């Protein structure tokens, strides 16, 4: 995959993941967050494993056991469950705002924990991205009354987004010897295994066609298909590039809402989307000559 195509992969992932909040919201009305996450991982893991076998690749589970479970827990099991847990108390707009904090945590972890140098463009890009997300979803923020359950839900999502950021940094630093497709399959299946006991505490009678379709969308589209591209992007580009995909979620969410749901697109949303797109230029250093910054070991 060349550098130009990675930009299109980033956009494609933004489109796919812009649907996750709606799918999760529907499922969370009747199912536990643990079963929602398990179903998502089981369906996605089955697709990834099938793709791996079709390519006649081996999983090497025993050899890469440690990496699979670390990435599976912090990149899938923990954040998926926390997002599903928070979906009952928060609407999808607020979830989009909070989801956009992943790049911020990636930069903060790099600076204060890993003691890595972060260039100024990355910092400005993250700042513009967060501002853009807040502006885009301004109406959703003002609707919050900050009850205790909402405060807990907000904290849960921030833990989830910091977990995503940490997992991205770990993959980039410790998993480069594992092929992206193999890493995606092994980590997702490991995460599903972690959450599998929840099936003994689930009432399957509440799953109707609507809920089943949402679970399938989460598993097949937002996990299986998306992870094939996400892990390849993580392997080929810096963690900052990989996690910046979440900045596109409110942009595509706004577009899809206007096209398919007839939602109004006001001045705030337009300004917010433009600000987010501007942040992508800083984060990815987009120009006519190059799409991505050179990936030196000490630069993230």
What's the pLDDT, averaged over the residues?
A: 84
Instruction: Tell me the major beta sheet.
Output: none
State the shape: globular
What integer value in Å does the Rg equal?
Answer: 18 Å
Beta-strand portion reads under 5%
Say how many strands there are.
0
How far is the N terminus from the C terminus? 20 Å
Fraction of helical residues: over 70%
SSE run: HHHHHHHHHHHHHH
This entry's quaternary arrangement is: single chain
Catalogue the unreliable spans.
Answer: 288-300
Number of helical regions: 14
Structure description:
The protein is mainly alpha-helical. The chain has one domain (3-284). It is 72% helix and 0% strand. Helix 2 runs antiparallel to helix 11, helix 4 (65-86) packs antiparallel against helix 9 (148-174) and helix 7 (120-136) runs antiparallel to helix 14. The longest helix has 28 residues, at 209-236. It is globular and about 50 Å long. The two termini are 20 Å apart.
């Amino acid at each position: 995959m060349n550098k130009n195509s990675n930009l299109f992969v980033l956009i494609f992932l933004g489109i796919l993941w812009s649907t996750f909040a709606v799918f999760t919201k529907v499922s969370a009305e009747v199912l536990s967050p643990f079963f929602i996450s398990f179903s998502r991982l089981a369906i996605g893991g089955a697709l990834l494993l099938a793709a791996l076998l079709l390519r006649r690749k081996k999983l090497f589970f025993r050899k890469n056991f440690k990496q699979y479970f670390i990435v599976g827990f912090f990149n899938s099991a923990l954040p998926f469950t926390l997002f599903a847990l928070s979906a009952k108390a928060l609407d999808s707009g607020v979830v989009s705002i909070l989801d956009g904090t992943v790049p911020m945590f990636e930069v903060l972890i790099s600076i204060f924990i890993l003691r890595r140098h972060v260039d100024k463009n990355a910092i400005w890009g993250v700042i513009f991205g967060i501002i853009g997300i807040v502006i885009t979803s301004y109406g959703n923020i003002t609707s919050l009354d900050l009850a205790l359950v909402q405060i807990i839900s907000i904290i849960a999502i921030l833990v989830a987004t910091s977990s995503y950021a940490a997992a991205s940094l770990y993959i980039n630093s410790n998993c480069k010897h594992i092929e992206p497709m193999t890493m995606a399959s092994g980590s997702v299946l490991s995460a599903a295994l972690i959450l599998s006991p929840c099936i003994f505490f689930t009432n399957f009678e509440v799953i109707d066609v609507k809920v089943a379709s949402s679970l399938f969308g989460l598993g097949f589209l937002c996990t299986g298909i998306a992870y094939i591209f996400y892990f390849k992007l993580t392997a080929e580009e810096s963690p900052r590039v990989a996690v910046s995909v979440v900045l596109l979620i409110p942009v595509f969410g706004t577009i899809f809402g206007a096209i398919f749901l007839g939602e109004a697109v006001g001045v705030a949303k337009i300004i917010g989307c433009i600000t987010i797109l501007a942040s992508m230029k800083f984060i990815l250093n987009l120009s006519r000559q190059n799409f991505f910054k050179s990936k030196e070991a000490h630069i993230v």
